[in-house]
Amino acid sequence: MTIAREFNFDGLVGPSHNYAGLSFGNVASFSNVKSASNPKQAALQGLAKMRTLAARGFAQAVMPPQLRPDFPMLRAIGFGGSDADVLAAACKAAPVILACAYSAAPMWTANAATVSPSADSADGRVHFTAANLNNKLHRAHEHRQSARSLRAIFGDAAHFSVHDALPSTPAFGDEGAANHTRLGNSHGAAGVELFVYGRVEFDPAAPAPRRYPARQTLEASQAVARLHGLDARRTVFAAQNPDVIDQGVFHNDVIAVGNGNVLFYHEQAFADEAGTLAALGAALETVEAALVPLRVASADVPVADAVASYLFNSQLLTKPDGAMALVIPHECRENAAVARYLDGLTGAAGPIDELIEFDLRQSMRNGGGPACLRLRVALTDTEARAMHKGVLMTEELYARLVDWVERFYRDRLAPADLADPQLARECAAAAEALERILGLPGLYRFD
Fold this sequence. Notes:
By secondary structure, the protein is α/β, with parallel strands linked by helices. The protein has helices at about 25-30, 40-55, 70-75, 85-95, 95-100, 135-140, 140-155, 220-225, 240-245, 275-285, 305-310, 330-335, 335-345, 360-365, 380-385, 395-410, 420-440; strands at about 5-10, 60-65, 115, 125-130, 160-165, 180-185, 190-195, 235-240, 255-260, 260-265, 290-295, 315-320, 325-330, 350-360, 375-380. The protein has a three-stranded mixed β-sheet. Strand 6 and strand 7 form a beta hairpin.
């Protein structure tokens, strides 16, 4: 059996991190709309998580932020003149669109792409498909830089294939790895890939949420599976429960997370819980694995508490001894129902024997927890050697990035600050310096 490790690529929070409340359906994002953010603290909180997990022996890397503001988008919709003119005109005529152009949402790299390891793909390469994120204006332009960053890091075509985003149409609404997980015995052996969708474009009779939009379509999930050359026997498509979407579960990773052969999920996560578990169990049998469902009942943790605490938007990581650790945000301890559940979780004879807690409050206030911040990439030793090494988290890189944040980031950013041309200059200078730190020259220069 081929040996492989899971690398977590955490999004580095960008210097324009702000609370604009742009993500309808994301309760936390809407709850903090127009309050002042702290970009410096946000970036340092994320870096602290990366450093701690790397020190624990987990394979950890950095995904660079995207350049903001998105001047090409602003110019494409009619704002012209100098950069300062563009900002002033957008602020006056369309402040919400200006906020979209400044969004630092690429920090949530679970939405950057869907990833299939080489053990699952027909051609034996690691496949990435950049997510089009076409449900929200502030994220719909991310895929271009996401694909560019992925190709810069995973540029060896002998080992990696980076696909452009699916067509940007409602039929192919794709939110990336936030609606995808992989189950199996190991990262180096064939596994089962689970795609969770919220609606079916070409079946108007299929259940759909009524209050909030379903962002992932079945058609998009099927297209990604085809692009990655996945075996139909080891690919499962499951419908998300439309009722929980209407309660703020905008992505499946807000209500379920998988690792190894363990699926940690809320009883209301799927439209057909029994059918989903049966399909996963049958698929796992083809790779000689047995599903271990870890079900959380509504009586123990109501959906509202799961959303408020982001219990399921935690990272489920396999430790060197084979046991699993659950990486949780502080908010899980601040919610009474979730705290009670967690107190009994590690004491039971289950697969999770440790909780690792982090302060990610800046990200949480904007609607993203530990799992949102990372993109999981399983790599063999050969593939790991073939990728760009400058993004791997080390003590040296951590120190350089902390210094970079201290130099370029503001500790307070209010909505009115987005019209300040100096902020745009600071973001550009930070991006230029980051290219040198990560050894990725030209990362932000488009032809």
